[in-house]
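Justification of resources, computational component.

The compute hours requested in this renewal are based largely on the per-chain cost of generating structure records like the one below. Each record pairs the submitted sequence with a full structure-token output. That output is archived, and it is also reused by downstream analysis tasks.
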Amino acid sequence: MKMEKTLKKGLFVAASAVLMGMTLFAGETKTYPKDGKGDQVLGYKNLANSYGISTSFEGNTVYVNRGGAPLERVFGAVEGENQKAEVMKNNKVIINGGVLATNGVWEKDKSIRGGSAYGAAGQSAVVSDNEVIVRGNSNVQGNIYGGYSHRGSVINNKVIIEGTPKFGAGTVLFGGRGSRNVSLKDGKAAPFDVVTGNTLEVKTKNVIVKDVKNFEKFVFNVAVNQVKSNDKLLVLTNTEGVELQKPEIVKVSEKAQISAEEKEQILKEKNKDINVNIDVVLQGKPSKNIKNLKVVLVNAEGGLKLDKLPEDISRTEKGYKYEVKFQQDAKNLYAVINAQLVK
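The structure output for this chain reads:
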């Protein structure tokens, strides 16, 4: 989705209209459809029915429940027309059985787009510590963004998947995202950082999306009293294969007046591998001892590349202790779990 073009033209959400000079209030809550219908985003008149909060950039919560027309986009916080935020943080979007889908087309190329959720979205703000939670039987046909900043940093955001949600064939889960064409801002290459601290937490099984990008940490919550050997938690359908340590590739804008050496250095820095951290935690105390429960954490039919296996895990919790060893083949990352009840 060409979100940066929308942001350049200004974002407006009718549920939270903003006037120039208005004081921004912290910590607002909106619930769809109870608190009224969404409205269009300025500049894209055929992409109607977006929803979110632009009267506060911090501490918001937006719920999308069942009922109402499908929403084009949902924002925990978003810059309104003629607004510019420096920081957008601690906002939360909870898709709780709602539907995100497209009702129109982009004017430029007539392609069908929409149906996405953003923890927060700004032009050059630092977007941090936001969450998007997708739960229940929600239906999300677009992408999920922990946060978005066209020219700023997008760090320490979280995407959480639980329940039995359905995603579109092209859905990508992003920890953070910015412009894919790097330019210079105050002599520095922007966007600055869309990876650090971003976390994907999977708390269910059979989560099927096209790909995942710009996450530094993956946390898999395994319900050991419910899952069976060879159950799949996260399934990635990208036919070109998946490399968890690779960020979304960015290029240098043709407008950037820099030398070839500077361009090469920027590309090397912006597209460097992510030091991925993978964790496995157990959901609840096991009902009995567990021996060699082999679960597929990540399945990628197009091929899965990971530069190194995660370190083995050994933990003691209240009433039990468990160990996790990791294995990998051409298409799968496995966790082999052993757990023992203790007094």
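The longest strand covers residues 290-300. Helices lie at 3-9, 260-270.
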